[in-house]
Design brief:
Belongs to the peptidase S8 family. With 386 residues, the chain is an alpha/beta fold. It has 11 helices and 17 strands. It is elongated. Mean pLDDT is 92; it is low at 101-112.
Length: 386
């Protein structure tokens, strides 16, 4: 049997070209991972991604070479293309609009009369009578999170090779405000007092790779996050076993994972990965009229619906923006999961999903493939026993 490092070296490229492809290799053992990495680096072959926690290495391989001996090697658990990930962008025909309201006096208590319609719709103010989310840790895997008066960032990481987790796109900041806006300038999120973490795995354009997301999930596991929000999907309906395995590892550690269904509706029959994975809570989008939005993806696997149309939230440079999409729906559920976990911290991810679906209210005229169990409702948290 040829040595694995020799096989990889024979196919490796030193820089991207029209003949190269990003490939991810998952090893069967840590010893195989370490040995292969050491031998390849001694030959001047440096991977674009190394993840010891999940025994995975990313290489640039030449398509003109045969990879079949790598795939079949006994030290290789899995090999797949490092496919593209993209944020679930603003829904079609729903342009992003920025606003900058007058900043009122800073408040230290929740004023339910100044809570956005969408936060009221999921009954977050009723849950606040019991908890504001402390001390739950919620990670937003996205384009990063910008500094903002209504956001308190407890930490974060950049898994794309950079050193900053601050947002250069706006999408992650908007998502974060929905989940965790603390209302200092008038905008509350679902869980205003959680510990918020910025995990930057998407770039300036809202794009990244599966390897960046897997790296982000591994960081969340190591740093003991309680909830992860994922408002993105794999490009062009492709599949990733390595992403599924990473999400399964996170769920096994009790981490609740919420994911947006996608914005290609209404004539869809599937939802995007990772929302389609059973370990995630897949979220569809509703509007002010309690209708499922036309743009919201349809298909088996949707768990709940939450507001996603015309949502005001935090934005870059201390501003606010109005956006629409399932990206906006998912953080409502992430925040709701955080509120529930703050009261019942020992609930596992599957149990949290079950409870949130049980509390949801079915919307008239929609099948489960459109709305899941119905519209998210969090009011019953105030009566949950500790």
């Amino acid at each position: 049997m040829p040595r694995l490092d020799n096989l990889i070296a024979s196919c490796s490229a030193y820089k991207p070209s029209k003949h190269t492809e990003r490939q991810l290799i998952s090893f069967t053992t840590h010893s195989s991972y370490k040995r292969c990495l050491r031998l390849l680096e001694s030959r001047g072959i440096h991977p674009f991604k190394t993840m010891p926690g999940c025994k995975m290495i990313g290489f640039l391989l030449d398509r003109r070479s045969s990879w079949k001996h790598i795939i079949r090697h006994p030290e290789v658990k899995l090999m797949e293309r490092d496919v593209k990930i993209r944020k679930h962008d603003t829904a079609p025909q729903m342009a992003t609009r920025t606003i900058k309201p007058n900043l009122p006096i800073i408040k230290t208590t929740v004023d339910a009369n100044k809570v956005p319609w969408n936060i009221k719709r999921v009954q977050a103010p009723l849950a606040w009578k019991r908890t504001l989310g402390k001390p739950v840790k919620l990670a937003i895997i996205d384009t990063g999170i910008a500094k903002h008066p209504d956001l308190r960032i407890s930490g974060g990481v950049n898994t794309m090779g950079g050193t900053s987790y601050y947002d250069d796109n706006g999408h992650g900041t908007h998502v974060a405000g929905i989940a965790a806006g603390r209302g200092l300038t008038g905008l509350y999120g679902v869980a205003p007092n959680i510990k918020l973490y910025a995990v930057k795995a998407l770039d300036l354009y809202g794009s990244g790779y599966v390897s960046d997301i897997v790296d982000a999930i591994e960081w969340c596991i190591r740093n003991k996050m309680n909830v992860i929000n994922m408002s993105f999907g794999i490009v062009s309906g492709q599949h990733s076993d390595l992403l599924r395995q990473a999400i399964k590892r996170a769920a096994k550690q009790g981490i609740v994972i919420t994911a947006s269904a996608g914005n290609e509706g209404p004539n869809t029959t599937t939802i995007d990965e990772p929302a389609s994975f059973p370990e995630t809570i897949a979220v569809a989008a509703s509007n002010r009229l309690n209708q499922i939005a036309d743009y919201s993806n349809r298909g088996m696997g949707i768990d709940v619906a939450a507001p996603g149309t015309e949502i005001v939230s935090t934005w870059l440079n201390g501003k606010y923006a109005i956006m629409s999409g399932t990206s906006m729906s998912s953080p409502h559920v992430a925040g709701g999961a955080a509120l529930l976990l703050s009261v019942r911290p020992k609930l596992g991810s599957a149990r949290v999903s079950t409870i949130l679906r049980k509390w949801s209210v079915p919307l008239k005229g929609y099948l489960p493939t459109v709305q899941g169990s119905g519209l998210l409702r969090l009011g019953r948290i105030r009566n949950v026993s500790s």
